[in-house]
Amino acid sequence: MHDVLSRARTQVLADGIGLSEPDLLEVLTLPDEVLPDALQLAHEVRLRWCGPAVEVEGIVSLKTGGCPEDCHFCSQSGVFSSPVRAVWLDIPSLVEAARQTAASGATEFCIVAAVRGPDERLMAQVREGVAAIRAAVDINIAASLGLLTQSQVDELAALGVHRYNHNLETARSYFPSIVTTHTWEERWDTLRMVRDADLEVCCGGILGMGESVAQRAEFAAQLSELDPDEVPLNFLNPRPGTPLSDRSVLPAKDALRAIAAFRLALPRTILRYAGGRELTLGDLGTRDGLLGGINAIIVGNYLTTLGRPAGEDLALLDELAMPIRALSATL
Amino acid sequence: MTPAYCGRCGDPLYARPHPACEAALALEPPRYCSECGRRLVVQVLPAGYRAACPTHGPVH
User: Fold this and answer.
1) Taking Cα atoms as reference points, which of A168, A220, A176, A207 lies closest to residue A22?
2) Which one of A101, A299, A304 has the shortest CB-CB distance to B44?
3) B2 vs chain A: nearest CA distance in angstroms?
4) Which of A96, A104, A305 sits opposite B27 (nearest CB)?
5) What pLDDT was estimated at residue A331?
6) What is the pLDDT of residue A39?
7) pLDDT tens digit string along B17-37?
8) Quick one: pLDDT at residue A329?
9) Averaged over A148-164, what is the pLDDT?
């Protein structure tokens, strides 16, 4: 076995301690012929520290488009000439989306808004939406509303939002190449407030935005320092009209190396397949990732793009004998 | 009716073939009206999407 994988077997699998940044860089640069060994070890780590269950989530955009921020990957930025138009989701449709998500077996439903941070109009919509969902659907509610103030964190906690998503998106050293309208540190501050309020922290990012492999290792190590409850892993799906529209899709083997590395950095976290997997990995790669450290998926559609039908993912989990995490296990 | 505009890029369909757009539309909703080429208002939902043209109404 490759040296870094031998170290990981002791340090991560046996002791539950994530790999260091230099070791993560080694995993991310493993030759193709060693990749199956890395995925197998990452899968063993996932089973050892997280168990066999897979957490299933659905997401929906409450407020789409027209965002003042310039996140270069995002079709919802109003700064670029993206074809995505601004639209708000009404409360009955939000509740129906939660109902459809719960019907797929999902235990998580995340309400997302394309904003720098919530204003009073959005907070009012969230307030009403969360109450309506809680009254009608048995599902955990998460939210992703951008940068928060302390009072907004406190209000979300009081509403019963159990997890807050705020992605750091990429390595600290690469962030200024991707976003110029706010800083990585501002995002970190929101995450710290979320953690201090006893909300579960969901924080990941997007791979394949032009970051170096070393920056990918840096990002995994920075997430490890944050120690989030969940890390959603996205792979860039280049969107028309954005500054990253002409970037190539991340090669599948690089994506799989990243999945193994992030699991070896974060042995206990919920590591979720998020956007872009259909394009980057396809059906075969999706299976390889589930057998290589992933233990959560977003089913159905994303915010502005479509996923494969939820039934196909659920059938794959069934075929792999991976149980869906029950709602009772998350409470 | 025969679509006149590409649902993904909004360009007229007579100008050139759009195989990449057609492939992409397997994983994304249309963003332009196939009749007039105007941008659609699109709401993606977990199990589908709703799209409407300001001129021609809902798109199916």
Assistant:
1) A220
2) A304
3) 22
4) A305
5) 47
6) 98
7) 999 999 999 999 999 999 999
8) 64
9) 98
**In the 8-state DSSP scheme, what is residue B56?**
T
| Domain around A232 | 18-324
Q: List the end-to-end C-alpha distance of chain B, in Å, as a whole number.
A: 13
**ipTM score of the complex?**
0.93
Percent of chain A with pLDDT over 90: 96
8 Å CB contact between A97 and A149: no
Give residue B4's domain range: 1-60
A9 in any annotated domain: no
Å from A113 to nearest chain B CA? Answer: 12
Please report, for the domain that includes residue A89, its CATH number: 3.20.20.70
Is residue A118 in a domain? yes
pLDDT, tens digit (0-9, with 9 covering 90-100), for A193-250: 999 999 999 999 999 999 999 999 999 999 999 999 999 999 999 999 999 999 999 9
Given a cut of 70, whether residue A71 has pLDDT beyond it is yes
Q: A173 is written with which tokens?
A: 């050293």
Residue A7 lies in a domain: no
**Is residue A164 situated within a structural domain?**
yes
Task: State whether residue B48 sits within 8 Å of chain A by CB.
Answer: yes
Q: Both tokens of residue A113?
A: 């808004």
| Among B6, B8, B27, the residue to mutate for chain A (most A Cβ within 10 A) | B27
**Chain B environment of A304 (Cβ under 8 Å):** 28-29, 42, 44
Our count of domains for chain A comes to 1
pTM of the predicted model as reported, rounded to 2 decimal places: 0.96
Distance from the A199 Cα atom to the nearest Cα atom in chain B, whole angstroms? 24
What does each C-alpha distance from A323 to A53, A317, A326 come to in angstroms?
Answer: 5, 7, 9
Rounded to whole angstroms, the Cα distance separating A211 from A215 reads 6
Number of domains in chain B: 1
